[in-house]
Amino acid sequence: MKVNIRLMSFPYRWFKKIFIVLGLAFLLFLIFCKQNGANALTVDSARMQVKWTNPSRTDSLTSFTSDNISFSPSNENQWWYALRFQTNYHYLTGVKYTIKLRFGAGASSGIPFGYNEYNTMDDKTLKAIYYSSSLYGSTTLDQNVRSEIVSNFNYSFTQYNQYQKYLVLTFTPIVDLSRLDFIITYYGSISSSNLNGDIGYRIWNNNLSANWGISSNIYQTKLNTSLTLTVSDTSSGTDTTIIENNTQTIIDNTTKTNEILTDDSVSSDTGTSFFNDFHEQNLGNLTNIITMPLQLYSDIQLGSCDNLTLHFNNVRVSSSNINKNVNLPSVCILKQHAQSQTSFNLVITTIQYLVYGFASFRLLKSLFNTIQDLFDPTNDKVEVADL
Amino acid sequence: MIQSLLNGIFNLIINLINLLLTPINNLIAQYLPSVDSALTYISNAITFVKQFLSFICGWLLVPQWFLTTAVAVLTFKYTVPLLVSTIKLAVKWYHQLVP
Predict the structure, then answer these.
(1) Which of A1, A48, A85, A345 gives A338 a disulfide partner, CB atoms 3.0 to 4.6 angstroms apart?
(2) Is the CB of A251 inside 8 Å of chain B's CB atoms?
(3) Which 8-state DSSP code applies to residue A138?
(4) B82 to chain A nearest CA, in Å?
């Protein structure tokens, strides 16, 4: 029996055209930035990183709240802050640690931050903190909701396990520090440990190249609060335990999935939320990639007259303009102009009908050819059934 | 109506794919963190590009009716032939199995 199903061909040509259009749009954007900035668009490649999302693990062991941190330099918007704290903690080789920063309500928007570990407190090491930090990003926080910034402290100890480390957190002082928490989490588990620390802060001018870490006299230990954190996880810290814990997490997730699949209870829900709220679901990375074309269609449908606001971290649009939003006007400007100018509206409408009328003709022609192919026995790779 | 129908079908497909890929996502996140990081970067890049799309379609003056028609036609073109072929194959197997 010869069975050769003709599979659909993937529309590579369409994707090629889309990428060409996107490339041209990006070129126009660069020209726009060039014309609107005093200097050329410059990117500090050492600090430019893709914004991260979707932390893989969020199971925290414990946390401490630094409610008694408060300081207010006079010209605070001109300075970076860096909180340092000493951790007496048995960091294991090859274990991935995660630091959570949790900012409370009242925190302002646009918080660039970063952190890193270092072994000493000298200035030269501090200078490298900002640039070598594996986690640098910014986020927009809701004024009324307690938000979380989760960062990966992805440092692997290759030579030996270390007990004492200093962590430094850098951010701009637009955060209400009285509502700032630190949560340390990590893959696997460690038998017991503690996090002791002196919390201090250091301020630098935001002109990093001139003042970052050069002069030690600008360091101020205005805060000297002793914090003690006791990690109270009772499981052992062997590699086997780490694997067992990870496996147990997967088993739990699979059990939840099975419960969903075998749930035959009759619900009075009409199922509307299934369709309407899917955007709020946390789609996995694989799902996000595979279903990209479908999501593109949904996003186009949701397009409105909102301007395109882009926030590029560490992109210098002009000589004194860092980390500013770039606003690109939407097409509604054109439409508003067309409404007031009848002749201009006629031109726009004519172009629209000509271009997309022709495109629709080509589209429907290909559709009719497809339907004809369905009824053409000579063009059918599957043996026509004797109906 | 066609637009709502397409949106509903697409949302259904996205949810089903997400349900099927959840165990694989968990496995990758737990045991292959570097691969998970790579996938996160790709996913973030897609999210970054997506925000340009409606903006570009707006400036290209793409009408809503054309967008809906194009997606509907492409969906039909790439699904119906496969469905017809499957039905034909099933009927042929039926004829072979039933003397």
Answers:
(1) A345
(2) no
(3) -
(4) 7
Dist CA A7 CA A382 (whole Å): 11
Looking at residue A115, its pLDDT comes to 44
Q: Select from B40, B54, B92 the Cβ nearest to the Cβ of A383.
A: B92
Residue A206 pLDDT > 50, yes or no? no
pLDDT for A148: 47
Asked if B26 and A250 touch (Cβ cutoff 8 Å), the reply is yes
Q: Which of A50-54, A97-101, B9-13 has the highest mean pLDDT?
A: B9-13
Residue B4 touches chain A, beta carbons under 8 Å = no
Provide the shortest C-alpha distance from residue A349 to chain B (in Å). 9
Interchain CB distance below 8 Å, B81 and A386: no
Rounded Cα gap, residues A220 and A121, in angstroms: 13
CA A92/CA A98 separation, integer angstroms: 13
Burial of A258 (0-12, 13-18, 19+ CB in 10 A): exposed
What does the pLDDT look like over A183-204, one tens digit per residue?
A: 444 433 333 333 333 334 444 4
Q: Kindly report the pTM of this predicted structure.
A: 0.38
Is the complex ipTM higher than 0.95? no
Token pair 């599979």 is found at A7
